[in-house]
Each structure stands twice: as C-alpha cells, then as structure tokens.
Queue: 4 jobs
Job 1
Amino acid sequence: MSDKQMHPCSCTVEPAEEYALPGDRMRQLKGALVRSVFRIPGMDCPSEEQMIRMRLAAAPVAAMVFDLPGRSLVVDHTGDPAALVALLEPLGYGTALQESNVLSAGQTPLAAPDSDAEAKVLWILLAINAAMSVIEIFAGWWANSAGLLSDAADMLADAGVYGVALYAVGRTAVHKRTAAHLSGLLQLALAL
C-alpha cells in the first residue's frame, strides 16, 4: 500500500517526511532502510566530519559511521543515495558512492550516536583543559614564563570550545551551527 495521497486535481503527492533528533530517527524514517558507503578523499579531520554531519542533518539519515583514516562514510538512510551525494558534492571533498544496498531483515542497522556518551567525553575534556589552564597560569606567573602563560590561554580557549560543544550535543542542526559560530568567535576573541 502506498503512502501517496490523491489531490482533487488528480495528482499524487508524497507526504512530507518528519525529521527528528538522531535518537528518534529510526522511528521517523519511512521506507526501506538503505546502507550506502561513500568514498570521500578530501575528508581527513574531525572538522570535515562535522561539516558533513551538518550537511546531512536534514536528510533522511538514521545513522552514520565515519572512517577518517580510510576516508569513507557508511550511512543508513532512506531514499535515493544520489540525493546524499548531491548534498555532499558542494563541500568539495570529492564524494563518490561506492555501494548501496537495502538492509535485509537479518542485518543490524548502525547505532545512532549516543549523546550521553558524547557529553561525558566532552565534560572530561573540559575539566582537563580547565584544570591545566589554571595550573599553567599559576606556573607561568611563578616562573615568569610567557610560554606557559600563552599555553594556558590556549588551554582556556580549548576549554571554552568544549563548553560550547556541550551546548550542541544532542541538539538540532540550527543549535549546532550557532555553537560553531560561537566557538569561532570565542577563539577569535582569545587570539586577539
């Protein structure tokens, strides 16, 4: 049975798909789940991974697994994989679809990202950077070392970035974009 609806003018309309936060994506996606593997030669660092995540945030994606050293991306999604390629091409990383298959009943879907685990790691990194920043400020002041003081400022900037990243964990793409802008402004302010 089709989800298409008939309009008075005899045309058919596909219902709009609802997009939710990553943990709810599996229930919201309609249609067969497809696993696609993309080769992305220009993706080799976490910032490019984040650009790709933001680009695919509104797409019907259930989960993604990035392999930065292998420069590949595995995506569980619904719909045409060519639509994902079209979303990724403007980034200029050289996206190519390697394979795409409908998941069978026996195949396990990729796990959606765990926001709690991400937040825990970010809290640990924030605590380490904040503590090291304070230690280096006092050590730099005591030793009269400009090197330690500048490294303390760098650690403080990192702590600020992790704090802003905590704000974005588990939120929508709009919040993540806002957090990215705030993070950039924070780093710019500390650089001055």
Note: Residues 115-191 form one domain.
Job 2
Amino acid sequence: MKNTKIIILLLMLINLANCKAQQTYPLDTDYEDVPALSYIKDLNNELNQFTGIYKANYQGNEITLYITKVEHMLKKD
C-alpha cells in the first residue's frame, strides 16, 4: 500500500515537471515563427488605433469595413 502511494506520487511529480505554460508573442512576430497553440497578444496596444468603421466608395459601390479587436483567439495548424 505504501509503495503504491509512493509510485503515484512520483508519477504525479514527473507529470507536473512536463507541463509547459502557453507562450505569448507580440503582434509584430512573424506568423511562421509562432508555434502551434501559442498566444499572440497586443502587448503595446497597437491595434486600438485601427479599430473602428471605415467607409469608401469604389466604382459607385459603397464599402464599409468594421474592424474590431478580437482577444483570446486560438491559432491552430
């Protein structure tokens, strides 16, 4: 019984040692350099200046762009 508890405790410690935190990268990082399941974060509030509604006319058509800042979006390969 005692050996079982020790083995379980050792397995839990080994498993804990293998855990890694999610890596955070700034916006100006090239997407090819970012590993899968990483988090790209607006660390310097660079996106705030671009959010809003933009309107334009092109060949008689009105184009409206709604640009928002999306947080906590997962990048999958």
Note: Residues 21-77 form one domain.
Job 3
Amino acid sequence: MPFGEGELTVVPFARFTARPADPDNAAANSANSTDLETRLNELLKEIQVALVPAQGEPFIVFHDSLRHFDDRSDLLAIGSIVVDPSQPAGVKCIRELQD
C-alpha cells in the first residue's frame, strides 16, 4: 500500500494546512514533508519484510484498530480480545490466556 493511504495521510494533510499558515517557510516545509514521506515508506517496507515469517500464522490482537495494517502486511489476525478495558493487557494476561 503506497504512502498516503490509511493512517499515513497525516503528512500530506500537514503539508496542505501548513502552506497557508506559514507561507514564508512553504518550501522548507514541503521539502521536510517529502523527506518524511520517503522515510516512512522505507520504514513500512522494512516492517513488511520483517513480518514475512509471520504471514499466514493466526494471532490474536488486544486492540482492533490496526486491522488495515494486518491487511497491508498479509497478516492473519483472527480476533481481538479486551480482558478489562481499564487495564492494558500484559504478559501475565497473555500467559493466562495461553494456559
């Protein structure tokens, strides 16, 4: 998935809104945002390569907000669990679920 889709639309949005708000620095802001886009795309590629061994392996997530990332990376999240909405799931909780 190319940059500019999903959660990564913030950089183009920031570029668009910064232009009229800070016209004196428009060129520098544009160059900085282009550099950030490039670095984020490179990071996404690195992450996707690192996740190749996990492709096709079912797993459970503790928050359902990153499903688009699972889809982008060909991961197989089979569900999400909320044990206690007021407490983040920790190692103890995961061990109990495994047992």
Note: Residues 26-50 form the longest helix (25 residues).
Job 4
Amino acid sequence: MGKHALVLTVVLALAQTECCLGFQLARETHLPLSLASGLSKNDEPSNDNGCVSGLCNSELSRRDACRSVVGTALTMSSALLGGADPVFATKEDENGFAPAVRPTAYRVDSTIPPTLLPLSSARKEKATLKALGGGSGTDKEEIKIDTLNLNNFMNKLVFGSIDFVSQTVSQSKDESKVGPGYASFVCMGMPSKTTSNDIDLATSLMGSILQSRREELATGLGLSFCPMSSQPALDAFTKSGDESTLQSALKGAGVGSETIDLYMPLIRYAKSKSVDFLALSPEFQDIEAARTKGLASVDFERRKSYVLDPEGFISMTQDPRYKLYTDRSLLKDFEPTNSEDNIKGFFAERIFVHEAGASAVAKYTVNKPESMVVMISPISDVRYLQGINGRIPRVFGSLVEKNNANGVNSQTVTNKVSDNAVTTILLNPTALDTLSAGEKLRLEIGTGPDTIDYQSKIADYIWFSSSPKVSLIPRLMN
C-alpha cells in the first residue's frame, strides 16, 4: 500500500472511532496526547486536576473531536511521509526540535488588502516558473478557493496546505494566449543595493523559466541599465560571445564598470541559452536633458524612437490609478541632485525612462507571436505595477493597431496582451524597497476611502534567495 493511501486509511479509521461517533470523553486524569496536539492556543487551559476546563465529565464537542483526529493523523503522516516536502526538511537540535523553514517565494494575491500565499515547496516554485515560461502570465484577479471540501481538506491534512498552484496554473492551452497578437513579459525588480546573490537568483529563476520555452519562440533579456545606443554591441555579442568587446562598448555608452561586472554572469548565462538582448534605457544625456530642461529638449528624432505611443503616453498621466502611483510611489524616490533640481524635473525623467523601456520591449515582441521578454530593472521602476511594466500592454496594443492600419500584417491581428500578460517579481526586496515605514514589507498603495478603488499591489510575486525573516513577511495565508 502506498504512503498516501496508508495515511488516508488511517484517517478514515480514526473517523470511525468512538471518539468521532459518540463524541464522549471518558473520565481521564490526563488529556490524551492526540487531543492535546489538536488544541489551539485559544482553547481553554487545564484545571488543577490536569483536565481541560469544560471537557472533563462532559460531552466532547464535534470541533475538538475532529481536532483529535487531525492531530493524530498529522503525527502519523509526518512519519509516513518523511521527505514529501523537502523544503521543510530540517536538522533537529539536541533537544529534538526541528524548526520550520519558511518558504522563499510568495504569490501576492489581489485581495483587499493584498495577502501573501507561500509557494511552500520546490515543486510549486518550479511549476510556477515553468508556467510563466509557457506564456501563462499572471491573473490579476483574486484567487478564489470557494469551499473547503473533502478533497482539498485531505490535501491540507496530508501535505500541509491547499495547493493553490494547481488551481491557478491551467493544464490546457488558453487560446487567448497563443498565436499572433500575444506575448508575455516577466519583469524582475532588483533591490536598491543589488549584490551578486540577487544576480544569482535572477539567473536561477530565468533558467527555470527558459526550460519550458520552445526553441522556435523568440525570447529576450531586457537590460534597463543599457542605453539603446549599445544595442548593436549586444547584437554582436549574441553572435561572437566576445565579452571584452561588449564591456568596452557598454563603458563607452556610459555604463559603469561595477554595473557591468555585476551583471556579466547573467549576460553570460543568457548568451549560453541563445537569448536575445534588449537595451531599454534612453541615452544618459537625454535622461539628463529631460530632468533639467524638460522632455521637449530631448532630440526630436530620438524622442520618437523612445516614445512609440505619444497619445497614450500623455493620457496615462491623467488616469486616477496612475496619479495614485505617482503620489504614493514614483515621487517618493526624489532626491535633489543640486540646488536647482526639482520634483517636476524628476517626474519628467522617470516617466520618460519608463516609457522608453516599455516601447523597446513592445517593439521587440509585437511581430513575434508568443514571444517573451524577461526584463531586469530596479524595484523602483516596477513596484506597484505602474512603472515600465504597467506601460507595456498599452504600447503593445498601439503597435498592433498601427501595424494593422499600415498593412504590415497579412491579416488583421487582434491584440491579446493585457495586464495579465505581464508578471512582476521582486527579488530579495527590503521593507525600504517597498516604501514601508516599518520592518515589514508594504504590499499595497491606496488604502483610504477615496483611493481604495485604485488600490495597487506591490507585485505579483516576491522571491528570496533564502528564507526571509519572520518580521519581514506580512499577511501570510496558509
């Protein structure tokens, strides 16, 4: 008999005991171990005779009886299913206590306020990343787990949690996510003080994502620190693999040596997987011009290449959700660089950088059905889903319309890219990266009665290199 079947048999057998049928508790001096394991911290304490108040010489409640069954089953299942969830396998100390290991990845569910759902095993993490590689995107609606029925109750009893991954990752191909007009995007936000550990994590996640990519599908790695003038050097590197030539070209474009050295392992890995490279940043002198003199001062021809949807670019600033994002997130990063610097110039700079990045990503994917871009940028440029990531669907849709109008496509193409096609993952974020005033991560902006309708969550996923501190994780759901 298999382990799972044996545990189920044990549980069902326990369900037939006198405890569950009659709900009578014999007069005992001490509380049975199985019942003790089922009591929560909110239950009544024992009295001087060693009995639980309200239980001795009285009828056992249905709830406490079920707890008894669950406690016993969990004790037995932990022995029978050793190694079922290797993520939680830990070494006992000298007293026999094995501390739990917290998950390293969390889905940010779109509840109000947002909550965190742990990916509690390596299997669930891998399934999520493989689905992203297959173009699944991430649904922005709240995850619905309607009822605690027998099936998911047993799943929770034996394995520790209801597997929301299996409920959110579809096994069948969604027709709205295939063919011309569809692409998907994974935006990885790097912490403000990026280290080699963060690069290693990004490389690891990208590796799992690429495992489910078909060879004939275009896949790009977008680098937000690379000016667009470095695109020819990136293209040449994909063919030659000459790192020294690439590094020289990036330095010539204004990228710092420290940044180049930090990201080279990721670039090297992407090259080994035949991934295309995308330079996402405007030229540094144009960024400076936008901040000091306004967007109108940027060279006209280059500005046209940076902003592919000028009408949408202008109208987006009037959207109530974007206004909330501007006030509660974007402008929070303003630090004057000199006595003449002001927040208006900073705003012009950031929306210019965000629009240019989204335009480069959309331009690469629009004529490549089911293509994907994995984008690397600072957390500040993707948090709360309204930075570079939030602009991609709009720009992509505008390019589809232009191509249809200009006869670029042999037949009319329907835009299939929505917000759900863009997945945002924050890597090793700190509380400060999320603009939290405390020690816990902040999960949303827009909590007041006048802004609740425009509430935005911090990201779709939060991923750590190792188990985060308990104090960092808020609103954790099992």
Note: Residues 430 and 441 are 7 Å apart (CA to CA).
